[in-house]
């Protein structure tokens, strides 16, 4: 009679993760081979945690993990501040990326060609309006020409090219020629209040 031996457990994956309190974001990276995947992970997550999570949650065996911490650019003032403070420097939180080499390849589905189902036009219009609003409150906003200044420049170009003719402002004695003078100020009686 053959003795039954228990199947050998995986060498890794001893750490049990029941309800993870972190978010992993799978990035679409079309330039790398299909057996590699790139994730945005929290700074506290290490290579062993990611490998255990992928094995226990999705049954994906991982051959290797590479991690990279990307520092963000220095900005003036914190994002979302009510009043931007110039020359108050702030560095946003760093981003940690991890690339895993998987046992089996993963192929992304094709990107949709029509976005009508998700109302992309409204989303793009809202993003454009938000960017215009943010540009008005940046510290260097006064250095850029305003829309009124751009319209004046267009009018000047039209004059120089001869598309429009110059109209002179009437002299002060030409404003009311042949018209009666109109009294602008009138006496108004206000009602008395109080006792």
Automatic annotation (TrEMBL):
GO BP of this protein: mitochondrial translation
GO CC list: mitochondrial large ribosomal subunit
Biased composition (Acidic residues): 176-188
GO MF, one annotated term: structural constituent of ribosome
Region of interest (Disordered), residue spans: 129-195
Superkingdom field: Eukaryota
Pfam families for the chain: Ribosomal_L23
Coiled coil regions in record: none
Keyword Ribosomal protein: yes
Keywords per UniProt: Ribonucleoprotein, Ribosomal protein
Basic and acidic residues bias spans: 129-152
Signal peptide start and end residues: none
PANTHER family per the UniProt record, alphabetical: LARGE RIBOSOMAL SUBUNIT PROTEIN UL23M, RIBOSOMAL PROTEIN L23-RELATED
Stated family: Belongs to the universal ribosomal protein uL23 family.
Protein name, as recorded: Large ribosomal subunit protein uL23m
Taxon lineage: Eukaryota, Fungi, Dikarya, Ascomycota, Pezizomycotina
